Amino acid sequence: MPRLLKYMTEPELNEHLNYQLRFIEQCQTKDTIGSMLIIFQDDGITQYGATVDPETAPQALRELADRLEKRQTVKR
Q: What is the rounded distance in angstroms from the CA atom of residue 33 to the CA atom of residue 16?
């Protein structure tokens, strides 16, 4: 079992997030331009890793936040 995120060093956290992102990338369809993994820790800190262009991420996150706030979600 991995260590708790709050006890990981920055290199350990980087390795942990990249491990998960590699798995996500293997599952992506050809029309996916990238992914973002967001982890909400129980201490209120949010960790993330991304394979998407950093300039694209803020706009995509805003669009997602708008849908969530409007409750325009689909149960999956």
A: 22
> pLDDT, tens digit, for every residue of 43-62?
999 999 999 888 888 998 99
User: Considering the chain, what percentage of its residues have pLDDT values greater than 70?
Assistant: 99
Read off the pTM.
0.77
Are 34 and 56 in contact by the 8 Å Cβ rule? The answer is yes
Return the HEC string of the chain: CCCCHHHCCHHHHHHHHHHHHHHHHHHCCCCCCCCEEEEECCCCCEEEEECCCCCCHHHHHHHHHHHHHCCCCCCC
Q: Determine, yes or no, domain membership for 75.
A: no
In a domain, 76, yes or no: no
User: What is the Cα–Cα distance from 1 to 23, expressed in whole angstroms?
Assistant: 17
